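Researcher: Go.
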Amino acid sequence: MTNTALEKTLEDIYASLKNENEDIDKHILALKIILHAEKAKSVEVDPAKLAQPNRQGRKMMQSYFKKRGVNVTFAGADSLSDE
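Model: Structure:
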């Protein structure tokens, strides 16, 4: 798998989140497969692309993905404020 596959899967996840989580589990599974192939332990997500980009939305996403075996970090996590 390539970085392009990872980017497409992340875009599918962002679209799914904006469409009330439609097919989110399918996209998480695809992401999990890509991460396993790349021997990565986590994926970095752009919080600005989330349907709910505040702290509550980020924590909810981390929790949901972690239950499905994917660790999520956020781009620019050092600069995120507790909104």
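Model: Residues 3-74 form one domain.
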